[in-house]
Amino acid sequence: MSKADLIVGLQWGDEGKGKIVDHMAQTHDYVCRFAGGHNAGHTIVIGEKKYALHLIPSGVLNPKAKNIVGNGVVLSPKDFIEEMKQFDNLEGRLFLSDKAHILLPYHAQIDQARERLKGDKAIGTTGKGIGPAYGDKVARVGHRLGELLHPEKLAAKIMEFFAINKPVFDAMGVDAPEEAALLDELKHYKSVLAPYICDTTQLMWEILDADKKVLLEGAQGTMLDIDHGTYPYVTSSTTVSAGACSGLGINPKDIGKVTGIAKAYCTRVGNGPFPSEDMGDEGDRLRKNGHEFGTTTGRPRRCGWFDAVAMRHAVRVNGVDQVALMKLDVLDGFDEIKVCVAYEFEGKEVDYVPYDLEDVKPVYRTFPGWDKTEGIRTFDALPTSAQSYIMALEEMIGTKIGIISTSPEREDTIIR
Ligand code: GDP
Ligand code: IMO
Ligand code: MG
């Protein structure tokens, strides 16, 4: 029986998970998504071509790898079908959980209405309907992909739901779907997606029992986790390692090596606390060098320095065995590089993540910069100050940095 390798984001998302999943998919038989929806944007660069994946696992670019979308995902059939168009011959190498919850256009309308009503307290969501879809799931009024196989029944249930909640939807300015159009839409989804819908929990057990090499692909990041992130400025799913079990129907003993993905600096998109944010010229320079604009919404990402305190928290919550340090090249040319090594909290210096990160100030240590790491493929060829930076981070977070990435390209990856 094999154990599954797991990839999780350790910061506020967009760490470069897609690149590492694609890299590792070359030696895995299955790649499985376990959480999130099309709020995720995983970019993969192969030669001249750039792919942005939102719901399809990042194993899809390796023709030999098969792809599973687990029950922990909220799936928008409309957006999934659009994404599928980039690829030929997905049949036999794409499996969708019949227990994954369906995200429909009205979820996005509710998401956007709630954000509007919150005004300056808005979360800064992607507006894709993620919160309302997970909300329906937990409130036990959601719909699962298996129901798509019976569109008439599903359309009737959705219409009934709108009738019951009419005053709420009216107050938010969300229109009820028109029944005939809704039914046509659901029938279309069924005609495209039915061949892929199956019991992926059984499939997970079968492939692990058959000793297949399985890779689990996280979305978002630890600081966006519904329980362990900067609540309420988080997403609505379990983004940490534990989510891989509930989101795919496997157990903790099925998990093997955990690789946590982190940038050599830090970014966040959307609102909420970000202690090591740099709002000045250096933050601008990180944004420009790192092309820090969202894959899903195009929004400029907030930029700042590596936060070793939040990272230690993330390493422990996820049980990280090794870190993949991404985008080292973005720090090329800086004279000095800062790292947040502690927080000032209630007049004291602390080395843990307190209840609310809103109330902390970063304490920085400064490291000497270097000239160029871009495209370097061995650790020994890195400038000595870059080597020292990496070793100092390892010391601070108490974990090996086993992978270092020096460009968006698949092969510009150092394995130590
Ligand atoms: P994900 O959501 O974690 O998969 O990350 P995104 O794809 O949203 O954002 C990461 C971005 O950084 C993508 O545009 C990648 O192509 C790019 N990227 C990944 N690794 C590196 C790297 O080592 N250097 C540079 N310069 N870009 C990278
Ligand atoms: P990947 O997988 C970065 C952020 C949004 C917002 C908050 C809630 O590409 O790393 P939501 O639409 O989920 O309700 O928004 O979470 N967010 C992400 N930020 N990367 C992501 O995914 C994200 N998915 C959601 O910007 O702050
Ligand atoms: Mg992303």
What is the arithmetic mean of pLDDT?
96
- Helix fraction, binned, reads 25-40%
CATH class of the largest domain: Alpha Beta
- Strand tally is 20
Fold and architecture overview:
It is a single chain. The chain has 416 residues and is α/β, with parallel strands linked by helices. It folds into two domains: 4-77 and 201-415, Adenylosuccinate Synthetase, subunit A, domain 3 (Adenylosuccinate Synthetase, Chain A, domain 3), CATH 3.90.170; 101-194, Adenylosuccinate Synthetase, subunit A, domain 2 (Orthogonal Bundle). It is 30% helix and 22% strand. It has helices at residues 17-25, 77-84, 105-118, 130-138, 151-164, 166-172, 179-193, 200-209, 242-246, 281-289, 308-318, 384-397, and strands at residues 4-9, 30-33, 42-46, 49-53, 66-69, 74-75, 94-97, 101-102, 197-198, 214-217, 255-263, 266-268, 302-304, 306-307, 322-326, 336-345, 348-350, 361-368, 400-405, 413-415. The protein has a ten-stranded mixed beta sheet, sandwiched between helices. A hairpin with a 2-residue loop joins strand 3 (42-46) and strand 4. The radius of gyration is 21 Å and the shape is globular. Guanosine-5'-diphosphate (GDP) is lined by residues 9, 13-19, 41-43, 45, 295, 326-327, 329-330, 405-408.
